[in-house]
Write a structure and sequence with these properties.
The protein is an alpha/beta fold. It is built from eleven helices and eight strands. Bound molecules: NADP nicotinamide-adenine-dinucleotide phosphate (NAP). The site of NADP nicotinamide-adenine-dinucleotide phosphate has 20 residues, from helix 1 and helix 3.
């Protein structure tokens, strides 16, 4: 709310699936929304309620708003947009939720600061249908007074707002780390489904076993994290030599079935490298050492 109790007008620049979802959630939360998209379309064509105003230019949208949200393809696109709106931004906080690498998001924040823009980096961690629901999750980083000004946006987007301090790299780093886990995980599921399929096991029959494996992964993460933090691999739960034998069988069976074994082979090779350095009775988790860099002293 403004000091006069009126919800601030929110400008949304970029009305792809995510920008449109943000605009819809903002309107549903009672904000007046003024939207802009590079390719001009009407509010109904963009899937927006009819009372969302569509501006002709980004500057016009910014001028009409108290808070600005930028949601375009990448940081090349958002950088050009920030340069265009900077003279009109004034005291408004600009939240950029366009995806990028941590390097991109830090460079964009530096550029925005150079242009005198109050700027917050955001990362939307959920697909569009969850925006504006209790299951939404958005990460934020920026100066505390600028993050504070985004309280109405956080309320409108719903769910969890993770406020992560002033390092603009952090939302993108967490976003990429989660997507790393997600994509490699679901690719592995596809691989495993195909492998089972070569033995006449249809995907639906494999599914409960896949769910069980994923649950086991989830349950093991806390211990794995503890091992990695302590850099100790001595629980005796899953020996390196035993796991390497399993991985060899997965790779061999995939090859025999004519299915690319690359993902499993990568893990097998990491395990074989670990076997060359540590005793076979070390926990398999020791493969982390290749990824972690020099141990802290
Ligand atoms: N969709 C999701 O589930 C999801 C989830 C999390 C994060 N995100 C992130 O949210 C951002 C937006 O994603 P999206 O799903 O809406 O679709 P998108 O395809 O990534 O982006 C489309 C939007 O970017 C605009 N755009 C592209 N290049 C532009 C440029 N040079 N100048 C101005 N506008 C430009 C497009 O305008 P035109 O219509 O004119 O092409 C359109 O509004 C992305 O960074 C994406 O990674 C999306």
């Amino acid at each position: 709310m403004n000091t006069n109790g009126i919800p601030p007008v929110i400008a949304v620049l970029g009305l792809g699936p995510m920008g449109a979802a943000i605009a819809r959630a903002s309107a549903a939360a009672g904000h007046q929304v003024v939207a802009w998209n590079r390719t001009r379309r009407t509010a109904p064509e963009l899937g927006l309620p009819g009372d969302v105003a569509v501006a002709d230019t980004p500057v016009e949208a910014v001028a009409a708003a108290g808070i600005v949200i930028v949601c375009v393809r990448d940081h090349a696109a958002s950088g050009a947009l920030l340069a265009e709106i900077a003279p009109a931004a004034g005291d408004r906080v600009v939240l950029n939720v366009s995806s990028g690498t941590p390097e991109d998001t830090v460079a964009s924040a530096r550029d925005a600061a150079g242009r005198g823009i109050r700027y917050v980096t955001g990362a939307v961690m959920v697909p569009t249908p969850l925006v504006g629901t209790a299951d939404c999750a958005v990460l934020y980083a920026g100066a505390s007074e600028d993050r504070g000004a985004l309280a109405p946006v956080m309320a409108a987007l719903g769910g969890t707002s993770d406020v992560l301090g002033d390092d603009h790299a952090v939302p993108a780093a967490l976003d990429l780390a989660m997507l790393d886990l997600y994509f490699v995980g679901i690719y592995t599921h596809l691989h495993a489904t195909a492998l089972a399929g070569t033995f006449g096991i249809d995907p639906g029959r494999f599914l409960p076993y896949a769910r069980s494996a994923v649950a086991t992964v989830g349950e093991s993460l806390a211990d794995l994290t503890d091992a990695v933090v302590r850099r100790r691999y001595d629980s005796g739960q899953a020996r390196l030599d035993m796991c390497l034998a399993f991985l060899d069988r997965i790779v061999q069976t995939s090859r025999d079935a004519g299915i690319d074994p690359a993902a499993a082979a990568l893990v097998r090779d990491a395990s074989a490298r670990a076997m060359a350095r540590w005793p076979g009775g070390t926990d398999w988790d020791v493969v982390a050492e290749d990824l972690l860099g020099a141990p802290r002293t």
